[in-house]
User: Fold this.
Amino acid sequence: MHNNDFHYRLIKARVAETLIKELFQNCGYTVFEYGMERTVPSILGKIQDKNEETAKQIRSMPDFVVQDINNGKLDYVEVKYRKDGRFGIKDLIEDYPYKNAIFVIVSKNSIRAISFADLELGKKIPDDGSKLEEFKTFDLDKQLVWKYRQYAESFFDGVE
Assistant:
């Protein structure tokens, strides 16, 4: 019913992004908002179906830059909500420009992560992606990840 509704999809995406932002912050990371919704918010509805190169690059901007406060390391993080929890290279725009991005896939049943490099190798979630608490790039508190997975389950229960 709502699957083709741009605003409904946007709300689901923002709920997933908020969960992940709060999780990283609660695990001691600094989270910088980066994606198109934050840097060029007025353009959001105007480029959703455009295929020009600039529009594709703007749409592909990762949601966050996260910084590990222990070592200063920065990572691009792109958050996606997927009802079925599936995600692969075909879900990205062609010539995705952020080759060092990490994708965090939120579903009702799991929160998983996969690197762009692994996607390029043909790996996909859920077959190859790590549970977020086991993803080696980040040092996240397993109990907090579990708690946020429960939040996702309650927020997305019954969502199309």
